[in-house]
Design goal:
By secondary structure, the protein is of the alpha/beta class. The chain is built from 13 helices and 16 strands. The protein folds into 2 domains: 163 residues, Aspartate Aminotransferase, domain 1; 262 residues, Type I PLP-dependent aspartate aminotransferase-like (Major domain) (Aspartate Aminotransferase, domain 2, 3-Layer(aba) Sandwich). The chain has a 7-stranded mixed β-sheet with strand order 4-10-9-8-7-5-6, with helices on both faces. Strands 11, 12, 13, 15 and 16 form a 5-stranded antiparallel β-sheet that branches.
């Protein structure tokens, strides 16, 4: 059972314990009733700076007035048709917009869905349909959702996979080139990772039976692990050699978070076959997409893709406005500024606190990894729990990550002001100081 503190009233705790399934975790035990920009307020009126963004969902900020207006306007006209029954304009407009901004060239098509996991599932379905092959390759440290296939692709046992097997067959997991926790030892990380994959084609799975490789350009739940710059392009080349599709999971990295509209854009000429999108795409409403090569996307026959709520008109209206705001207001560029400020501050903090083992990130996708000893790099999840609790007490919402739950990730809305960012970083620093002193 979660231990609630701060502003959550006893009546709210009772409701939570009585009616909400135990498996629904809660890191910050407060009840939020209002939010705006990069701030949230609980039921007692206390304000919090948001460094979590609903786990990367609120890149344009909470309750952006233009997104609210777009949803209101759409709600007055049409809530739902189900695209399988009758087309609606927001679905068509968003599909067109996503094909325009997706980081791949040539003819493209889109499929609209409701969640990141649902988009991942459908990308794999499309890959298998197009190639006629069954096998999928994923990476250690990767996270692709909580559905049965999502769990099968995900590389974290507790809590995501404990007690839920057996999992989907023909999923093969490879080491990820993690610069901080190098799984190979001395040498070129990219070459070692791809060498392991080539070896796997001889010992684990016939490459002619592999439909797709799915990879996050920056691992999200895995702890904001940024691979070497040459990894994705060389992975792309290896996939092409064997007729394997490359699926890039941009659920958390997409829509401006890393300093580009999509993190894939950092690798010039990468040309994935499909890109999976969700989270900040809808400004807080549930919507996701798979965008890919037209010939690949057209492989499933009519009726093989979709769902009742996929591409709901309200969520589409929100997503269209999000894209407009992102491009007009230069939010990806703002992500670079946030990232530079955050990384500089945290690296300075790292020099003063031994339990900060690593500071890393790309754009405004920034994280610190806490360890008990810098030499052994033994994970320190207990410290993350204490730091997060102190941050909450001082008015900062944080969220953890990492295979060992020892990473604090920063996912503030990209509209956060410099003052709010600095205040949040100073709260984080105070929580780390106190935690290390108590240690």
């Amino acid at each position: 059972m979660n231990t609630f503190v701060q502003s959550a009233s006893s009546s709210q705790l009772e409701r939570r314990d009585r009616y909400v399934a135990r498996g629904v975790s809660n890191q910050n035990p407060v009840v939020i009733v209002r939010a705006e920009g990069a701030r949230m307020w609980d039921e007692s009126g206390r304000a919090y700076i948001d460094f979590a963004g609903g786990i990367g969902v609120m890149n344009v900020g909470h309750n952006h007035p233009e997104v609210v207006a777009a949803v209101k306007a759409q709600a007055e006209k049409l809530f739902h048709t189900c695209v399988h029954v009758a087309l609606n304009e927001p679905y068509l407009a968003l599909a067109e917009a996503l094909c325009r901004i997706a980081p791949l060239s040539g003819p493209k098509k889109a499929l609209l869905l409701n969640s990141g996991a649902e988009a991942v599932e459908n990308a794999i379905k499309i890959a298998r349909s197009f190639t006629g092959r069954p096998a999928i390759i994923a990476f250690e440290g990767g996270f692709h959702g909580r559905t049965m296939l999502g769990m099968s692709l995900t590389s974290k046992v507790d809590p995501y996979k404990v007690g839920y097997g057996p999992f989907v067959p023909e999923v093969y997991r490879m080491p990820f080139p993690n610069p901080y926790r190098n799984p190979f030892g001395p040498g070129d990380l990219t070459e070692q990772a791809l060498g392991f994959l080539r070896h796997a084609f001889e010992t684990y799975v016939d490459p002619n039976q592999v439909a797709a490789v799915i990879v996050e350009p920056v691992q999200g739940e895995g702890g904001f692990v940024v691979p070497p710059a040459d990894f994705l392009p060389k992975l792309r080349d290896l996939c092409r050699q064997h007729g394997i599709l490359l699926v890039v999971d941009e659920v958390q990295t997409g829509f401006g978070r890393t300093g580009r509209m999509f993190a894939t854009e950092y690798a010039a000429g990468l040309e994935p076959d499909m890109v999976v999108m969700a989270k900040s795409m809808g400004g807080g409403l549930p919507i996701s997409a798979v965008v890919g090569r037209a010939d690949v996307m057209d492989a499933p026959k009519p009726g093989g893709l979709g769902g009742t709520y996929g591409g709901n008109p309200l969520a589409c209206a929100a997503a269209l406005k999000v894209i407009e705001i992102m491009e007009r207001d230069g939010l990806p560029q703002r992500a670079l500024e946030i990232g530079e400020r955050s990384m500089a501050f945290l690296r300075g903090l790292q020099e003063r606190h031994a339990m900060i083992g690593d500071v890393r990130g790309l754009g405004a996708m920034v994280a610190i990894e806490l360890v008990k000893d810098r030499e052994t790099k033994e994970p320190y999840p207990e410290a993350v729990a204490r730091v997060s609790k102190k941050c909450l007490e001082y008015g900062l919402i944080t969220v953890k990550a990492g295979v060992y739950n020892n990473v604090i990730r920063l996912l503030s809305p990209l509209v956060i002001s410099d003052d709010e960012l600095q205040q949040g970083l100073e709260i984080l620093a105070q929580a780390i100081r106190e935690t290390e002193t108590e240690r």
